[in-house]
Design brief:
The complex is a heterodimer of chains A (375) and B (530). Chain A has 375 residues and is of the alpha+beta class. Chain A contains twelve helices and ten strands. Chain B has one domain: Up-down Bundle (Cytochrome C Oxidase, Chain A), CATH 1.20.210.10. Chain B has 16 helices and no strands. The chains are: A alpha+beta (375), B mainly alpha (530). Bound molecules: copper (II) ion.
Chain lengths: 375, 530
Amino acid sequence: MAQTGKPLPLLAAALALGPGVAQAAYKFNMQEPATALGEQVYFLHNMMTAVCGVIFVAVFAVMFYSVFVHRKSLGAKAANFHENMLVEVLWTVVPVFILLAIAWPVTKTVLGMRDTSNPDITIKATGYQWKWGYDYLKGEGEGIHFVSNLSTPQDQIHGKAEKGEHYLLEVDNPLVVPVGKKIRILTTAADVIHAWFVPALAVKQDAVPGFIRDTHFRADKEGVFRGQCAELCGKDHGFMPIEVHVLSAEKYAAWVGEQKKKMAALADDPNKTWNLGELKKRGEQVYASNCAACHQPTGKGNPPAFPALAGSKVVLGPKQAQIETELNGRPGTAMAAFKHLSDVELAAVITYTRNAFGNATGEAIQPSEIKAARK
Amino acid sequence: MASIPGHADAGHGHEHEHHHPTGFMRWVTTTNHKDIGSMYLWFSFAMFLVGGVMALVIRAELFKPGLQFVEPEFFNQMTTLHGLIMVFGAIMPAFVGFANWQIPLMIGASDMAFARMNNWSFWLLPPAGTLLVLSLFMPGGSGGVGWTLYPPLSTQMGIGMDFMIFAVHILGMSSIMGSINIVTTILNMRAPGMTLMKMPLFCWTWLITAYLVIAVMPVLAGAVTMILCDRHFGTSFFNAAGGGDPVLYQHVFWFFGHPEVYIIAIPAFGVVSQIIPAFSRKPLFGYASMVYATSSIAILSFIVWAHHMYTTGMPVAGQLYFMYATMLIAIPTGVKVFNWVATLYRGSLSFEAPMLFSLGFLFLFTLGGFSGLVLSMTAVDVQLHDTYYVVAHFHYVMVAGALFSAFGGVYYWLPKWTGHMYDEGLAKLHFWLSLIFFNVTFFVQHFLGLAGMPRRIPDYAPQFAEFNMISSIGAFGFGLTQLLFLYVVIKCIKGGPKAAAKPWDGAEGLEWTVPSPAPYHTFETPPVVK
Ligand SMILES: [Cu+2]
């Protein structure tokens, strides 16, 4: 790669000239912030780095002076002092004041970060192993919900295809929000702890299973902002990115209209009786986006954490037990609960697993059976 | 300071011991603090190599974007084991090794207070290290959960996770026993006239560290036992569905974990505080304030744990309290740095390998302290938490801090341990190569973190490619350099110029009054300190 040599001279320059130059090239500093709070964080980091830099230079100027001047090889004779009350007090007390001066602006920013009151739009982000689910709970777009998966092809990851521009930071269904509006993000998780992290929006919030946490941002410019899950969540922790599209108010309204239409078209008639072929076809899609990461597209799994479905006793056994497992998960194992999927989706995916990978029960599970089992 | 040197014919028995096993059994049954100290140091170096190879697997995979060498599950197991092995297997035992060798020699005691427990606390380590490595060969491999072992991820893992939990239990027992021994030895076995405030600073730092170990290791044992119960016995300490809370684990873990940082750093401060005055030929500046600063750091370390958890969603009052408390630690830490620099000032400095490593420590540890100060600011930490900035920060503290100090300590006391001088030229080469490759590896990781690269990921976006490649090159250089260290040490054990009882003209302390190599038994009649 021809580029590898490039950062070295820059790095040397940054080291020699201190934080002033380091900020000039964004690669050496935080991503350009897209929110007012992000600007504050960016400023605080630069300020602290500069303060530390000044103290560092002052202290180590003394060290290097001694190293070069008070050398035995130059005939330096050691002095014998080993105490001085005045300097001891000074270098204990002066840092206290420096810290107080710094603590004040940081406190203001922290208070701003934690103020999630009066949002325009509230969206719940749910971490799953390994994707994000979004539910628009309140405000314009209320009722929209979708799942957001990594869209980078496996071939790129395994070096069988050229890597795209947004390699690993691209998703099938990005989160869409309007510019200039206060967006409150509620985070939670279905299985293990994840963290919702978008650097340019200055937002990172753990998503803890069984609990709801919140954070917020107000993007002051349109654009696409990318981030990643920041809390180790298992095998594909590195492969569950976050992509946020910030649109103008009009474009956002258009997007909301489009989504509502799509959802209406997709809504399934709960009373319809599905045939085996329809269920298998739908189930294959549900399987690919919910199950294949662990149980593998082949159904062979990845034992022992992720057992095979091909020939599985549960999948080939009584259907009631499998419905139970899908709805409630298996506490204490990697098998999460999937009760957030719709009756049709669950019926389809169960039917699919019972009739794929060499399994051939010939059974078609109807959505009504899932509905009954939920009670 | 008269002392009666022990029998120089080490290994040929002693009037109190009629049967002295030889060969392997000598090491299994030994209760001699010098033998046990050596075993600790060798064990820790072996673990350092194992953990280092794991680090190189990680850096090899991160050399380029894309998955090349290992699967993500295995990558996660490598990051987890690398952390556990380096913290519990390499760094902590290394400093217990120094304590075993040096504390009795420094305070004029004949041995450690509980010699048999000393043997036992060492011999718990090899089984624990073996359990950690064996966990890789269990079905599903080891636990790929990070060294912090956060549930619920750690409740999902296979049997390898149980191996890790038991290993942590055993390692904890070993450190508690080692620490009880150190506290008892220091408080009861000092030579007449050696008051606490006359002790070498290394003994002070270990006394304080030992109290920290005794206080927090049981907390860690409790936390991992709760995971074990959640995994196998149907409890729900950390499972919300059963009324528990995953974040509770993080509070308990970091109540151990933050003092743990100082358990690693404080003995390193102690080693450096011996070396810098010796090669400045000038007494340590502010001895008393060093003792007070170290104690304050230890006490403050108990009240800052949740600064590792700013993003878990604690109330804003909690975030602010932990931020202020964390910033406070900068004050005693600053005092220590200022004292070291004042010791150098107007000294008569020479730059043998121990001094070079101590100066490297001083410079780079302070850099790590400053990035810690940046991270203490809640608002900035929210941005940088769980990114490579944090990885860079703690490697400056752990590697350039603790490890450099340990290298300095080995070179400083090697003449006393072996009776030979080491090869100064090669040791200096070891320092300069370590210094350069360390910075190549870790300095660039600050930039990766600032740009938003999360830690613990096996693959990354192309915008992070250059710095990762530089970091990987540095890591391989750093790893290979450590083989040079092994060579220098073995060469010194095998031979070399004879070392005088006091090979460093500026060194102070009782350890330099006994011949080099230190006889098998020393200070059987306590020396008198004026
Ligand atoms: Cu995640």
